[in-house]
Write a structure and sequence with these properties.
This protein has 261 residues and is an alpha/beta fold. The protein is built from eight helices and nine strands. A seven-stranded mixed beta sheet has the order 3-2-1-4-5-9-8, sandwiched between helices. A two-stranded antiparallel ribbon has the order 6-7. Strand 8 and strand 9 form a beta hairpin.
């Protein structure tokens, strides 16, 4: 059981209220229509590349803020126990495998390694990855294989994992970057491999959670249930999709079991 203090901190840290909107721009590629003179074209081109540079800078800032925030809270999170509803999610995913022993599993956004440790105890050969070096230290202290890797650049062997687990990690990905991350995940997953994706959501929102107890405040992206379902279907077959109501919270939990085509 989770002690009251830690349970409260888990909810406070991992179950954010809707973040206040911030100026997070999305820049779609320009579609050229009709005729423009050379001067106008040059001005559009210059403005477009200024925007692109701004996007790149912002992504680096979001990533660095997340690393700093999770590094600062690694010791606290290392004390957390797995909540009962998350154990249910883990066990439901495990039920998709008839013979687990030796299957390679990648835990993306492993944090301090509690989920990785549980999956390892059930027979998986687990590699835990996270962008926070302090979180990876916690994983290593649990006897896990772990590396500092972020989901934007999964520099791992192609089609090398039988399964992938990711709970409440990809909600830190800006929406315009989710395609990159899904492509990376699809690349390292074996054909027919299973991918568990868990996210808080239920409404459309993107930005910094200004009331975040973690400092610096973290970036979150939330999706309506129907929108995230449409997005994942672009990349994977949906074996199961459940919306889990979160009692006392203003978010749903979106639980997917996916399979690589």
């Amino acid at each position: 059981m989770v002690c009251p203090r830690v349970f409260e901190e888990v909810n406070q840290a991992d179950n954010p209220a809707p973040p206040n909107r911030v100026a997070v721009s999305r820049f779609a590629p320009l579609r050229w229509r009709g005729f423009v003179d050379t001067q106008t074209l040059a001005e559009i081109d210059e403005n477009y590349y200024k925007k692109i540079q701004g996007v790149v800078h912002m992504d680096v800032e979001i990533k660095n803020t997340l690393i700093e925030s999770y590094n600062a809270n690694a010791e606290l999170r290392d004390k957390f126990e797995i909540q009962s509803w998350k154990l249910n999610e883990l066990n439901r995913f495990i039920s998709y495998f008839s013979n687990i022993v030796g299957l390679k599993l990648l835990d993306i956004g492993a944090g301090s390694g509690q989920h990785s440790q549980y999956l390892k105890s059930n027979g998986f050969d687990v590699l835990s990855i996270d962008m926070s070096p302090e979180m990876i230290k916690s994983c290593l202290n649990r006897g896990l294989k772990a590396q500092v890797i972020d989901f934007y650049s999964l520099k791992l062997e192609e089609a090398s994992f039988d399964a992938i687990w990711s709970m409440n990690a990809l909600l830190h990905v800006p929406k315009r970057r989710l395609d990159i991350v899904f492509n990376n995940i699809k690349t390292v997953l074996k054909p027919g491999g299973f991918f568990y994706l868990g996210l808080y959501g239920g409404y459309d929102s993107e930005g910094i959670w200004e009331e975040d107890p973690y400092k610096p405040n973290r970036f979150f992206s939330f999706y309506k249930n129907e929108d995230i379902e449409v997005k994942v279907k672009e990349y994977f077959d949906v074996m199961n999709f459940e919306v889990v109501p979160m009692v006392g919270m203003n978010t749903d939990f979106q639980s997917f079991v996916l399979r690589k085509r």
